[in-house]
Amino acid sequence: MTAWVVAAAGLWLLACGGGSETTGGGGSTSSAGGAGSSTGGATGQGGGSSGVGGFHATGGGNAQGGGEGCLTSEAAAEESPLDLIVLLDRSASMAGPVWNGSVAALTTFFQSPGGASVSAGLEFFPPSGSEPQCQPSSYNPIAVPVADLATSSATLVSAVQSQSPAGAETPTWAALYGTLQFATNYQEQNADHVV
Question: Which of 144, 146, 141, 145 is nearest to 81 (CA)?
Answer without folding.
Answer: 146
